[in-house]
Structure prediction request, 293 residues.
Amino acid sequence: MTEDSQRNFRSVYYEKVGFRGVEEKKSLEILLKDDRLDIEKLCTFSQRFPLPSMYRALVWKVLLGILPPHHESHAQVMMYRKEQYCDVLHALEVVRFVSDATPQVEVYLRMYQLESGKLPRSPSFPLEPEDEVFLAIAKAVEEMVEDSVDCYWIIRCFVNQLNNKYREFLPQLPKAFEQYLNLEDSRLLSHLKTCSALSRLPYDLWFKRCFAGCLPESSLQRVWDKVVSGSCKILVFVAVEILLTFKIKVMALNSAEKITKFLENIPQDSSDAIVSKAIDLWHKHCGTPVHSA
Prediction:
């Protein structure tokens, strides 16, 4: 029996006895023991499998460039990251932009604004749409990551990835959504068009915020594994699967306003199944892309 067939046999066995992911966890642990972490292999793993929660923050930090591939540098680099975090926070406190009473996600926003040269003249200035996106993502990450330094750096680099790496791709996602929904259920797409709902779907919530505030964090982080590791197109298939899952409900609604309102507040108890089916749908249409939007 070849190594691959042995592995496949073991995976099937583990899944049957209720230990799904045991082999994948072992594979990831082997990757993480390399003296120099292989970014390509970590991306491939993250695209194929959900990351075990105990390793997710580490893998994300490596893939987002917060930590270097070399293990021996991790402690020192995180010390520098912490020093930078404290310096920026102190600067904001000195100019009285934040205080002990400031909500933590707003502190992260002000830190990000200061570092990117976009800090407004006063904390009372109204937030820009991009600030609202940042806060939504920050609230989600805050639920996933306990350490405040790790939390800030993951938010910062995740948002930068959206604004830079995916900048050209994100505006194209609504069109891709229409394309794949048509392939999966043309009748449902026709209903959206008949109700003039297609252009009014919550694309900002789905694509700009990457479903932050729409899906619970336990489901969301499985989607973000794919975004962090190289594909924002997974967002399209989550949106498609939401429509397919709630097809009966959506088909019963006859106005764009009602459809949009429902999709902005979908039932949370279906989210795990939606994400699992969305990932299957993504692999069905796109294979296992690596480093591609």
Observations:
- Residues 168-284 form a domain with the Cyclin A; domain 1 fold (CATH 1.10.472.80).
- The two ends are 37 Å apart (CA to CA).
- The chain has 16 helices and no strands.
